[in-house]
Write a structure and sequence with these properties.
This protein is of the alpha+beta class and 187 residues long. It has a single domain, classed as tt1808, chain A. It is 22% helix and 28% strand. It contains 4 helices and 11 strands. The strands form 3 sheets. Strands 4-7-8-9-10-11 form a 6-stranded mixed β-sheet, with helices on both faces. Strands 1-3-2 form a 3-stranded antiparallel β-sheet, with no helix packed on it. A two-stranded antiparallel ribbon has the order 5-6. It is globular and about 45 Å long. 30% of the residues are buried.
Length: 187
């Protein structure tokens, strides 16, 4: 992430700015540009959304949104994947999905890109956990490991055949080896 603006803005002022591609995030009064996703990042993001939604959407348990802006507290972030339990999706009165999500996701998933600062990305996950998220996954494709954050315990490193913890009610069993195995598409 690169700092794109030094002038202090309020969250409200930031949210009135036009959206950019790639997305910008508002963290502690600063605007930070997210890096453009690359191959491994896109593959993991797409497959995780498919796997989560395949087991959760029809049963109305949860839904995984890719690159969804979530604004709460004093931040506006765009997690790689924001998973909301069905009952926490702020549906409009007609049942449609809203454009604005002013709450933290129940599960926040970030995938480290080579040019990203891991501490800034982990900082967003920790901020989500401190503000109501149940669970956070930090995927490091280079290390082939996933750092898991939960409200009620210390971070945990998931590697190889270790199984990822999921939100209550989700019938999803994934190991780190399965997740990173998705990167091998050409063999």
């Amino acid at each position: 992430m690169t700092n794109t603006q030094a002038k202090y803005l309020s969250l409200k002022e930031f949210l009135n700015l036009p959206e950019t591609k790639p997305a910008q995030e508002f963290i502690e009064g600063e605007i930070l540009q997210k890096p453009m996703p690359k191959g491994r990042h896109s593959r993991l993001q797409g497959k995780l959304c498919i796997e989560i939604n395949q087991v959760s959407e029809a049963a109305k348990i949860a839904y995984a949104f890719p690159e969804l802006r979530c604004s709460f507290g004093n931040r506006s972030i765009v997690p790689d994947i924001a998973v909301f339990l069905w009952e926490n999706i702020p549906f409009l009165s007609d049942g449609e999905v809203p454009d604005n999500f002013n709450l933290p996701p129940d599960l926040v998933i970030e995938i480290l890109s080579p040019e990203q600062n891991p501490n800034k990305v982990i900082g967003n996950i920790v901020y989500c956990i401190e503000n109501g998220s149940e669970l956070g996954w930090f995927l490091d494709p280079e290390a082939q490991s996933i750092l898991v954050f939960r409200r009620d315990r210390s971070p945990l490193v998931i590697k190889n055949q270790d199984t990822l913890p999921v939100l209550e009610g989700m019938e999803l069993t994934l190991s780190a080896a399965q997740v990173f195995g998705w990167l091998k598409m050409g063999s």
